[in-house]
Amino acid sequence: MKFHLEASLRLSSDASGAEAAVSDFFKGAVPLLQKGAPEGQGARITAWKLAGNRIDLVIDSDRYVRAHDALLRLRRPLSELLGKQFRIGVRGLDITKFDIEVQSERSIEHKIPHVRDIRFEGGRLYLSLDVGPEGTLGQSEIENRIPDRIISLLEEKLQSGYGGKTEHWELLWESAARQPKFNRDPTEEMQKEGWIKHGSSRGQWIYGPQATAVFRAFERIVLEEILRPLAYREMIFPKLDTWDVWKKSGRAQGVYPEIYFVCPPKTRDPAFWEEVMDYYKVTHEVP
Predict the structure, then answer these.
(1) Cα 21 to Cα 199: distance, rounded to the nearest angstrom
(2) Which residues in the chain are classed under CATH 3.30.70.1920?
(3) Could you read off the pLDDT of 53-80 as tens digits, one per residue?
(4) Residue 127: which H helix or E strand, with range?
């Protein structure tokens, strides 16, 4: 994974007189830009220019110290240097170009939030982020780790495609192996026998007396053999969860095609909702 970032630091006044000090600062910034990375890895400043009240920077990096992180690492010590010695402050930063290159065996066809262009060529994906005066990714998004969320989303898609939360479980006990007495699809068989029928929309079922009796039998087993011996006491909670519950649980990243917004959604097809889910994963906001 490679990063190429072109940015400018906006200063409070003309810093032409501080050019030598700025030059020395950038020469000595190598350890700062390689901190936490294996030897010889990290970020590097490939070009810079002091232009009046602006410092233009070009930063190239690998996955160990991402270019936007390198920019943020530089901002504070440079601000302290200019402030103490020259009474000049760093007012903000502007991003003019931000490209990401990642190895991939396939392309990504749909839109990713804050990404202007995606190109697949020679086994690599090339992403151009939506920066610049008219772009959607600027200082606030850099500080809020939006590029990191874009990368996490990209890695998730390249590894597994669609999907919600990963299922985590630990096997505590299992019975001895038994010979199955039934090896057909139970849903198809119950439909043939009229035990269940499709409801008015996909994902909804009408359960006949036979299926309902089976459910009630399982319910009695759980109550009598597990819950009551363990002294559980029953409670009733609201049927509809608020959006904050979905956000805090982490399920908001993958439940869109399964949510019923009081009435059924237009479709439960994951492909239809993918851009919406991606937008939330990157921005943590409801589109």
Answers:
(1) 73
(2) 2-160
(3) 999 999 999 999 999 999 999 999 999 9
(4) strand 124-129
CA distance 164 to 160: 10
Is residue 99 within 8 Å of 3, Cβ to Cβ?
A: yes
| Cα–Cα dist 283/287, whole Å | 9
> Is 2-160 in CATH node 3.40.50.300?
no
- Please state, in angstroms and rounded to a whole number, the distance separating the CA atoms of residues 136 and 161: 25
Residue pair 86/92 in contact by the 8 Å Cβ criterion = no
Judge whether 112 and 277 are in contact, CB under 8 Å: no
What's this model's pTM, rounded to 2 decimal places?
0.66
Nearest to 126 by CA among 272, 258, 3, 278: 3
Q: Residue 243 corresponds to which amino acid? A: W
From the CB of residue 70, how many other CB atoms can be counted at a distance below 10 Å? 25
Structural contact between residues 284 and 195, judged by C-beta atoms closer than 8 angstroms: no
- The residue with tokens 């943590």 is 284
Phi, psi of 78 (to 5 degrees): -65, -40
**Number of residues that this document lists for the chain:** 287
Q: Token digits for 109?
A: 């066809």
